[in-house]
Amino acid sequence: MSVRLQEEEEIVKSDEIQILYNNEDELCPDLDGCLERLDLYLLFLGFNQSSYCRFGISWVSFLMIGVLLPVFVVLSNCRLKCDLYQVEAFELLVVSSHASLAASALLCLSHNLRKYGIRKFLFLDHYNAHLQTHYLHKISESKRALLLWFLPCLILKVGREVTRMMYMQHDHSWWQPFAILLTLTFSWTYVTIIFLSSCLVFHLVCNLQIIHFDDYANLLERETDVLVFIQEHARLRHHLSKISHRFRIFLLLVFILVTSSQFATLFQITEFRDKVTFINGGDFAVSSIAQVVGVILCLNAAAKISHRAQGIASLASRWHALASCGPDDTSQMRFSNRNGNFEAANNLLTSVSSESDMEAMNYIPLPTNAQLTSYLASYHRRQAFLMYLQNNPGGITLYGWTVDRSLINTIFFIELSLVLFVLGRTTVFTTTN
């Protein structure tokens, strides 16, 4: 009878494994297709520079659309004697700051994609089959986040250009200010999409690693082998160090360029003698908001993954406490040896539990030296593992500085104070007599 039950259990397990493999075959094309669409989107923006032809097309398109086209339009528009509605120094500063951010994003991200490829760059070359649904969900969230953050900035940009077009008076027909509106909006959209997409790629890489840290927390509930925990944690820390190494120059350039752009805007506004309004200085406000959105996306992703990595120590502390403070010594010994060496002692205690307490106490065996030694060894292994986690918290680092919540608060309030100053000086409407 027992042999037959074992055979039925083996058949059920084999069926479950076959179903799991079938599900993996169904999910793999979904993830492959999602990665192919993401790679195609990055190719369209010029990030995929795997060949000399793509490299040339990418940078020529960027120089033409992101730099030369807006500079030409601004210089041509300033000859129309409309200084009240457009200041040449303001417009050129906005174009240069936005183009610098887009160029740094294009340079850093294209280098990593050319070197590693989309799968290895996202650490999905050796992905877990049971996490594919979470991967797809995170990629979809990144796409929605791009639309959610970009559309308000685009609406502000279009509103500012339409408002300026209504106030500008030309000797020519209406098509000239309308052509200027379309040209400047198209160029601004191109460089802004490049910058925000690079920030969201970093955000996506960090979010994909958060999935693995959540799965690591579940591993503490499934496994009891300390060596498995240490090996998995070392692998996760290795991935975080790779992310920090690949994005450290990009993050530094973003922080430096955005902060310097805000200070340059501040100096330009304070030195300008005439009135600064939303019409002639509104691009400062719109571009500052878009730039700070990119900084927030990067800081939020880095701080989130650092916080999740540092939180593993607290989960391990709880796991260690639950393993050490069981209901009785017998449960602790059973936990310390997963092969069941102490099952006999536990069965003996169970068999005498039906007798009276005084009689049962005579049959409770004292733990042997081997049992105590095994339990103490297990305790010390867990304690060593906990000390390892406390001394190796992990996280995103920039040349040794961990990007955690304290750093994100400092940078965020510096950028926010600069942006609020710019908004306070530029969101002023005026009317003409």
From TrEMBL:
Keywords, alphabetical: Membrane, Transmembrane, Transmembrane helix
Listed InterPro entries: DUF3537 (IPR021924)
The UniProt record lists the keyword Lyase: no
Membrane spanning stretches: 57-77, 89-109, 146-167, 179-205, 247-264, 284-303, 406-424
A UniProt-annotated Pfam family: DUF3537
Protein name, per record: Uncharacterized protein
Native source species: Tagetes erecta
The keyword Magnesium is annotated on this UniProt entry: no
Lineage: Eukaryota, Viridiplantae, Streptophyta, Embryophyta, Tracheophyta
Lineage top rank: taxon: Eukaryota
